[in-house]
Amino acid sequence: MFGKTGIELLQEVAQCPADSLPAFNEEAFRNVIDEVHLQHERLTSVYNESRERHRQRQLEAGEDPEEGGAGWRGTEAEASELMVYHSAILRNKRLLFTYVKERLDRIQELRWTHRTLPDHVKANLSPLELQYFRQYDKLLSRYMRSGAGGVGLDLTADPSPPDDPYVQVRVLRDYGDIVFTSGKVSLQRGKSHWLPKDEVHPLVMDGVLEILAGNS
């Protein structure tokens, strides 16, 4: 009742490879929410019971009960119990927020490294996470395109400047003729070419080309 399920949720993500995600654990997620509701109910109950005892003590002492709990003075044990439940609620909320954020961070990273969601990842996403990826993909593509508001540059091509602007690649499947800044090239399966590194990345991601060893 004090964060165990939330911690297990985070461990599911932490133990998964960086380029993957476990299935969204909706059952455990809802269990943590239910746990927060129970903690809030218990906190409210403890406070109301303590306030009522305070009121009874006032009556026994011949004092006028202070309306609405103003001036409430609980015992040290009561205050400690209230703090435990309040802290547990905040902790569970932070665990859920972290679980969601870690998953979304990985989804964003996959857009930069893979351009599209791998099938094994897509199958593990919730409907809202799939919607998030589509919207993020749309915004990023709009920002990178040429024209008004765009930078006209594929920012996902290479996160660091290459030492050599050209790289040797092998064609994995026939793709026909394509024009690079270095000229027109016929991509035929099994052939090797030296091509501009920043222009081959999309074709590598699509499985058309592979970068030969020592040229990455």
Automatic annotation (TrEMBL):
<keyword id="KW-0539">Nucleus</keyword>
<keyword id="KW-0235">DNA replication</keyword>
<dbReference type="InterPro" id="IPR021151">
    <property type="entry name" value="GINS_A"/>
</dbReference>
<dbReference type="InterPro" id="IPR005339">
    <property type="entry name" value="GINS_Psf1"/>
</dbReference>
<feature type="domain" description="DNA replication complex GINS protein PSF1 C-terminal">
    <location>
        <begin position="164"/>
        <end position="212"/>
    </location>
</feature>
<comment type="similarity">
    <text>Belongs to the GINS1/PSF1 family.</text>
</comment>
<dbReference type="InterPro" id="IPR056783">
    <property type="entry name" value="PSF1_C"/>
</dbReference>
<feature type="domain" description="GINS subunit">
    <location>
        <begin position="80"/>
        <end position="146"/>
    </location>
</feature>
<dbReference type="Pfam" id="PF05916">
    <property type="entry name" value="Sld5"/>
</dbReference>
<dbReference type="GO" id="GO:1902983">
    <property type="term" value="P:DNA strand elongation involved in mitotic DNA replication"/>
</dbReference>
<dbReference type="GO" id="GO:0000811">
    <property type="term" value="C:GINS complex"/>
</dbReference>
<dbReference type="InterPro" id="IPR036224">
    <property type="entry name" value="GINS_bundle-like_dom_sf"/>
</dbReference>
<dbReference type="Pfam" id="PF24997">
    <property type="entry name" value="PSF1_C"/>
</dbReference>
<feature type="compositionally biased region" description="Basic and acidic residues">
    <location>
        <begin position="47"/>
        <end position="60"/>
    </location>
</feature>
<feature type="region of interest" description="Disordered">
    <location>
        <begin position="47"/>
        <end position="72"/>
    </location>
</feature>
<protein>
    <submittedName>
        <fullName>DNA replication complex GINS PSF1 isoform X1</fullName>
    </submittedName>
</protein>
